[in-house]
Amino acid sequence: MSLENFSIIESTLREGEQFVNAFFTTEQKVQIARLLDEFGAEYLELTSPLASPQSREDCEIIAGLGLNAKILTHTRCHLKDAEIAVGTGVDGVDVVIGTSSYLREFSHGKNIDEIIALARDVVTYLREQDVEVRFSTEDSLRSDPEDIFHVYEAVDELGVGRVGIADTVGVGTPRQIYDVVSRLRQRVNCDIEFHGHNDSGCAVANAYAALEAGATHVDTSVLGIGERNGITPLGGLVARLYATDPALVEKYDLPVIGELDRLVADLVDVDIPFNNYITGFSAFTHKAGIHAKAVLNHPSTYEILKPEDFGLARYVHIAHRLTGWNAVSHRAEQLGVALDDGQVKRLTAHIKALADERALTLDDVDGLLYHWAENGEVSLDGSNTS
């Protein structure tokens, strides 16, 4: 297994635009594109220029920004679509057609042989235009594997740059994804891209399994936004790879993830989930006394990610009944408050007793620390005990 040579195809400006609350203006798209480029995403995928006149103009504008990332757009497997896509000046065209029985019957109505014939026409044209070409089967996990392998082998012979496995409805499991990608890896020479939806909560695990099996590219979006429950979140994929080996993601500017999450959350009018990968408000918060003591002694005891590598800091929460005296002592040191261990232990017991009666804030605890240092210990009823 080798995970070193992979690329991110960042699809916030394509898949993400399908999110129910996404109504990006051109200026907002440019802002997102520049920030993704600053992060270091190798590719940015944009909405098909066939979607609307503004979508076509946006492709032209972003393709002309001179970013380091390669600019892609996404089209149906139609020759006319491909011609229009090339005309926008993008670096690559991502072609897609459904291969599951559902889509063949209820969408385009073509059988596998007809799909291959159409693919040959479109891929041959794009290969002549000096653009990168990816050919993807939509709803791959509900397609007959032999059908999609037959299609992939046909376009691989034409010199396509990548073929794509798309778990369009999020039905796949990591084991299934690993199986189909590893089998495909044995049958084609080109790169392999994975696009996974999150309907059943497996998008990050499935993307990682695809890379383990030999995929070279993974589609992501900021916060995972996209159709329905979205796709593999950029931060989630980075967190998973970092947890395996931080060197896998050292090519990216990791602190930019926070900027991206905040920007996109604001633009689509959602809150960043409290448990979001990396940027959730509690992602690096420690509360239980035993955990806090260990983290203060050696952060890796309860942190698989180093917050400082992402431009963040850990927070040891002490204003509650689960707090421990080591955490309270650490807070006293931060504030420059001089209390000996005995005093800190008695204050911790005092904090626990207060927290049993009412919710406390950090300001409450800080006030107690200052008061005990300046005026002596205070009992639960507020009287001075020294």
Describe the fold and architecture.
There is one protein chain. With 386 residues, this protein is α/β, with parallel strands linked by helices. It folds into 2 domains: 7-267, Alpha-Beta Barrel (TIM Barrel); 285-375, Orthogonal Bundle (Recoverin, domain 1). Helices cover 44% and strands 13% of the residues. The strands form 2 sheets. The chain has an 8-stranded parallel beta barrel, surrounded by 8 helices. Helix 12 (325-335) crosses helix 13. The termini are far apart.
Q: What gap, in angstroms, lies between the N and C termini? A: 65 Å
* Rg on CA atoms, Å: 26 Å
The number of distinct structural domains comes to 2
Q: Specify the helix fraction band.
A: 40-55%
Structural class designation: alpha/beta
Number of strands: 10
Would you summarize the structure shown here?
By secondary structure, the chain is of the alpha/beta class. The protein has helices at residues 26-39, 53-63, 79-87, 101-108, 112-127, 145-157, 174-185, 203-213, 234-244, 256-267, 289-297, 325-335, 341-357, 362-375; strands at residues 7-10, 43-46, 70-76, 92-98, 132-138, 162-167, 191-196, 217-220, 285-286, 315-316.
List the helices and strands and how they pair.
Layout: E1 7-10, H1 26-39, E2 43-46, H2 53-63, E3 70-76, H3 79-87, E4 92-98, H4 101-108, H5 112-127, E5 132-138, H6 145-157, E6 162-167, H7 174-185, E7 191-196, H8 203-213, E8 217-220, H9 234-244, H10 256-267, E9 285-286, H11 289-297, E10 315-316, H12 325-335, H13 341-357, H14 362-375
Parallel strand pairs: 1-2, 1-8, 2-3, 3-4, 4-5, 5-6, 6-7, 7-8, 9-10
Helix pairs in contact: 1-2, 1-10, 3-5, 5-6, 7-8, 8-9, 11-12, 12-13
